[in-house]
UniProtKB/TrEMBL annotation:
Catalytic activity: peroxynitrite = nitrate
Taxonomic lineage: Bacteria, Bacillati, Actinomycetota, Actinomycetes, Propionibacteriales
Biological pathway: Nitrogen metabolism
Source superkingdom: Bacteria
EC class: isomerase
EC number: 5.99.-.-
Claim: Heme is one of the keywords in the record: yes
Protein name: Peroxynitrite isomerase
Cofactor(s) listed in the protein's UniProt record: heme b
Length: 164
């Protein structure tokens, strides 16, 4: 689906403007401490003229037929691109942790790794992550590697979302 660049697009945001909009689709998850699962997801990237995007994502677990079983993760934050192609991404999660990511954008791909993780007293043990997002055949493909629960950094979630 085509989209229009906002008239007030901040110049630092231009290289990642391909992210703007609402994306929906499906994903898969796996981890040594978690049984494999499938989920639906909606991601929204918005911009108001300042040098950042607001990001919000919500997910829900689905069964083998793709029917919603229950709500799952929610995350929100700010993606802050810089003129030199570097990125900062601040994220908070409903599960009780916040992350600061640093990385780069190049063409229709962004890649970020955690610089800091802060957890609440009741959050599960999580120590770091790595994310990659790319525009492939008009869709948003993404992957998330996680280090948690005594496990080393390894693949955890991946999905394909379609612009709405």
């Amino acid at each position: 689906m085509p989209f229009e660049l906002p008239d007030n697009l901040h110049p630092d945001c231009a290289p990642i403007a391909w992210l703007l909009g609402t994306w929906r689709g499906n994903g898969h998850g796996d981890y040594p401490t978690i049984d494999a699962f499938q989920f639906g997801q909606e991601c929204i990237f918005t911009h108001d003229g300042r040098p950042f995007f607001h990001y919000m994502s919500r997910a829900w677990i689905v069964d083998e037929q793709g029917e919603k079983v229950r709500d799952a993760a929610i995350e929100t934050g700010f993606l802050r691109p810089k003129a030199d192609g570097t990125l900062e991404w601040l994220l908070t999660h409903n599960t009780g942790f916040a992350e600061v990511y640093h990385g780069t954008s190049e063409g229709a791909k962004i890649e970020v790794s955690t610089d800091a993780v802060v957890r609440t007293e009741t959050a599960k043990e999580y120590v770091g992550g790595h994310r990659m997002y790319g525009l492939v055949e008009g869709d948003l493909l993404w992957a998330y590697d996680m280090a948690a629960m005594g496990q080393k950094l390894q693949p955890h979630l991946w999905g394909r979302l379609v612009r709405q």
